[in-house]
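Write out this protein's structure.
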Amino acid sequence: MRARILVVEDMDKNRKLLVAILEYNGYEVVEACNGAEGVRAARDYMPDLILMDIQMPVMGGVEAMRALKAAPDTSGIKVVALTSFAMKGDREKFLAEGFADYITKPINTRELPETIRKLLE
């Protein structure tokens, strides 16, 4: 069975790039444009992994991740932070917040499939 990944990203170009890479690597992909949509999609589709942008309209990624972790049905889903924040200490901050991993933008298209594979193991 193919792993299902939810991509929550408000920037159309970034979302399309992520979807293309993930589908090329054999994953089933569900898309959402903001954190609130992402929370609903996670409940509806129960993905194996969520790639969550941090800065989005309606509901940001940290708030959406907290909502997912607070709900018993979605609390076990790994959520990965996608962000342009790449300062020293940012990775630790996001991991301490409860994210399973942290991927910086611009996305390294060569490393992403390997990172996803490791997270799904």
